[in-house]
Amino acid sequence: MARRTRIVAGAIALALVGAVFHAGCSGSPGGAGPDRRSVVLYSVTDRETAQELIDRFEEETGIHVEAKFDTEAAKAVGLVQAIRQEKANPRCDVLWGGGAFFHAMLADDGCLAPAPGDLVRAHGGAPRDAQGRWLGFAAAYRVLIVNTDVFGTEERPDSIRDLVEPRYKGRVGIANPLFGGMAAHVAALFQALGPDEARRWLAGLKANDVALCGGMADVTKRVASGELWFGITSSIDAHVAVDDGKPVAVVVPDQGPGEIGCMEGFSAAALVAGGPHPEEAERLLRFLMSSRTEEILAAGPAQTVGLLPESVARDVRPSWLPRGIRAMDVDWEEAARGYSEATKAVKEILLGR
Amino acid sequence: MRTPPKSLVAAAVLLASSVVLSPFLAALSGAGLPGRTAAFNGIAGPIAVSVGCALAAALVALVLGVPFALLVERSPAGLRRTSWTLGLMVLMMPPYIVSEAAVVLLGPAGKIARPAASLLGFGPRSTDPGAVARFTVPGFVYSWSAVGVVMGGCLFPVVALAVAGAYRRTDHRAFEAARLARGSRGVWRIGARVLVPPALGAALLVFALTLTEFAVPQLLRVRTVGEEVHERIQEGDLATAAALCLPLLPLVVAAGGLGVFILMRGRVASLAGLEGEIPRFTGRRPGRAGHVAAGLATLVAITPALILPAVSLGWLAASARSSQSPMLGRHKLIRTSGVVSSFREVWGLARDDAVRTVLLAAAAATLATIGAIALARLTSRVGWGPVLGVLGAGAAVPSPVVGLGLIALWNRGAGTAVYQSSAIVLLAWLARFFPVAVFLAQGALARVPRELEDAAALAGRGPVGRFLAVVLPNAAPGLVAAWLAVYVLSATEIGATVLISPPGEPFLAPSVMNFMRRGQDPEIVACQVLLLAAIASPPALLALVMILRPRFGPVAKGSP
Question: Taking a C-beta distance cutoff of 8 angstroms, is the pair A182, A176 a contact?
Fold first, then answer.
């Protein structure tokens, strides 16, 4: 008995030493060796989307990318908050993804550094921060996902205002507007519709017993299952469901004359102020801000539309997304500043707090 | 036996408290509470919902765990082993996969709920496809009670292990004496005294673990205090987010303290249990009906958190359709390769994540168990056992607060070296789950008769010898349960891990969570199965060793 106990205790000690050694020796950014250059990327963009580009960048430049990814559930409290928390001693060099809303917040907090002037100038008419602290590219849209078993082609809803139609009571869904992309969407609506109309829209959602789902992907799944009839989701998640053969269709909302247009949720990239590898970070940012990158993203799982001048000229887009989508006019810095008002309204009106 | 100096015990308690509570205190620093009382406005509702979910979870764990343990423990060896294997597999199922399965199968448009409702005559009268498609079942899936069922279903083995441990270590002469004295009424009374304390103690642990759960309530659309905390973090106000946990602390500390107190009083073992000749309770033996009841109890207990997710995953795999789109890249390889090939592709993508997760979770579990044993023994010697209930406060701290607090604490000066290594993940898991290990280890050690150690001391064995020869073998089942619990909880942790894992070193649970958003296709199933397999591998090895152990030589029970 005692011998066996000693053997087990020895095995445990050995395993423990091995695991702790592994923990201690691994993970330091730039730990790929003294001769190998590296850059730390925080990617809110999904791993399966980003990995392709990371592999290409490493292949072309020889710079090793230490990437850290977020999860949809943690989008709002994940990497963006980590960058805030690391501000005094930044570990990250480049932040990619998460949209302009959170980049604008980080820029306001002094966490982001301006991009090189020539890169900003080459950015053309694509969305960006006035001081170049974040650059937008690769647009995805907030669309309506509609269950095709429930709606025929002619009767599909085509506006976010349809979410407050009493006949759809209890059958519509959006992602929880306190978090992530939907928080940004509501803040943008406060600008596009004006505070009064945006509040009325929220009251309508409340009256219509809207389902507040765990994220855009959750909305998509619930509509695909038939639990909800339609809802707001991103064109990325909508495409996954369509591609999987689910009974859903994508409607780009509010495209009629006089309507506000649909929200354009482009990706954004930024240099983190005081990041440990500035030179490599700049190379990665230049790599991301290229038409070729947008082409790869358009052809990959992200299915985004190119926004950079060359991409616009070459019409880089996935074939299933229609041309000429009219986007909502949003000043993201203004929207970030209006976040508190929008959140307060969500809590008061929609959540009854 | 010598009593350790109180200063040493106090230092050990302080060290443990700093491991568990330092991230919270770092997050809290600068809160300026007097000026932030407005932050607590409207918090009562979410707290009440959180407490409701946690109470429901504790109740469900009791209802499933106690009958399971008692019926299975009295059944024949083959059935007992099978039932325990299935029961422990439940512990390895991440709650967010279980809640997703609940929605897929039992939600308003559930694969089971909708046909069942139609069969019962609640379906649409019309055969119009539109009307059929619009039919949904008003279900209970999106409710606080469903959160309780999911969490209780996932954590019932904790209660079952505690009850079975007490049952095994009990001198069955107590039952026999009670039967002779007062018949079956006496058996019930003595049974209650023996089994209620560990059952309640474990249920309180389930309560504490459910209180700040975020992923399951979010999926089931229940607004808890966790949502409030996440919202404050999104606003960049970490201090207020941490402050919002303060109302939970007394609840969890009280629950933890009470649980420890109850467990410490649950010492009903005797020398007889260690001599190899446990007197068999000769009361009514379970016949065939008893075996059927044990089988049914197993079936009922594993349905919420094992059978339903397995059915859901199977359904998704069977109904999956490979991607048709002309996409490029590695993602296409996974999505277009079908179920079987998906495993290969996903393994290629996430192999390092899986190895890293298993190694570090095993290290965290081992460190936590060793630390918990030392702490429990030290404090019990000086009668400070219930003081460890304070560590329970760690369970009231939501995972993102732990993660962000650790960044504030370690991303400076010399601490940067720790922050930039995977050791920071170990610290996060220890901060979150060390209280669980302490709680279970205290219960396990409390059931070892003090007289045995005294006898070993008289025979000249030193402290280490006494521990290895007497305490460890007799407390082993409870300590293995503690190791397993910390291992599984660590391997499936997301909230803190995603914040602090070093760049370039992803862990499996966040990766799987990311894949899950992609809908219902082969890669999702492959990822989830991969996660479960990675988590299950060390416990499976452990089980294999236990099964094969008798073949390597007979073990004389009670031999030194």
Answer: yes
Residue B116 is assigned to a structural domain of this protein: no
For the whole model, what pTM was predicted? 0.82
Would residue A248 count as lying in a domain?
A: yes
Which run of H or of E encompasses B140? none
pLDDT at B337: 55
Per-residue pLDDT of B456-493, as tens digits, reads 888 888 878 888 888 888 888 788 888 888 998 898 88
Tell me the residue type at B12. A
Interface test with B, best of A71, A84, A156, A347 (most B CBs within 10 A): A71
Separation of alpha carbons B186 and A307, rounded Å: 79
Domain that holds residue A152: 142-263+337-350
Min distance B413 CA to chain A CA atoms (Å) = 9
Our separate counts of H helices and E strands in chain A read 14, 11
Give residue B28's domain range: 6-107+142-552
Query: What is the per-residue pLDDT across B371-422, written as a single tens digit (0 to 9) for each?
Result: 999 999 888 888 777 777 778 778 778 888 899 899 989 988 888 889 988 8
Residue in chain B lying closest to A27 (CA): B421
Q: What is the CATH number of the domain that holds B15?
A: 1.10.3720.10
Average pLDDT over residues B144-157: 94
Residue B230: list chain A partners with CB under 8 A. 76-77, 178-179
Count CB pairs under 8 A between chains A and B.
267
CB contact under 8 A, A22 and B495: no
Domain tally, chain B: 1
* A300 → closest Cβ in B327, B422, B425: B327
